[in-house]
Amino acid sequence: MTTSQEKHKLMVIGPSGAGKTTLLKVLGMSEASPCKTEAVCYSSKAVDTPGEFFEIPRFYHALITSSTKAHLVLLVADPTRHVRFPSMFTRAIRARSIGVVNKSDLVSEDLLLKAEAELRRAGVSQVFRVSAVTGEGLEELKGYMRACGVMDQPVKTEPAPGPQG
């Protein structure tokens, strides 16, 4: 049986080198240092997947099965390398899926549009452009994740009282 905490996890899927683990870290969804992900990694907040599971169709079943543990799936594209996404791939995923073009600070508008087109071909209807390095677009993505219940709402704090006078 799936607990409610498991169903509020975020899952990242995409090719090797797309920056999935780095993205999880900057979103505050993983404590792990960015490195080569060798297997599907489950944490209390996220499911991180190896790029090879996306690149080799024989492993799609592992992604599809693991998606049952997620509430939201980020399909991550790297616009610096052209990678074909399987047509309508997200139809097999058992969670809401959105597209994320990472490394948006490194390429031209033309390459960003091509990466977005591949994500849409894979079946996502919403795409966010982000840079895990510069922070570009992360607040918009976090807002969407909060609205989906995958990320905690930011804690509102009152400013410290000034000197009374």
From TrEMBL:
One of its GO terms (biological process) is biogenic amine metabolic process. InterPro entries: EutP_PduV, P-loop_NTPase. The keyword Nucleus does not apply. CDD domains: Ras_like_GTPase. Keywords: Nucleotide-binding. The keyword Transmembrane does not apply. GO terms for molecular function: ATP binding. Belongs to the EutP/PduV family. This is Ethanolamine utilization protein.
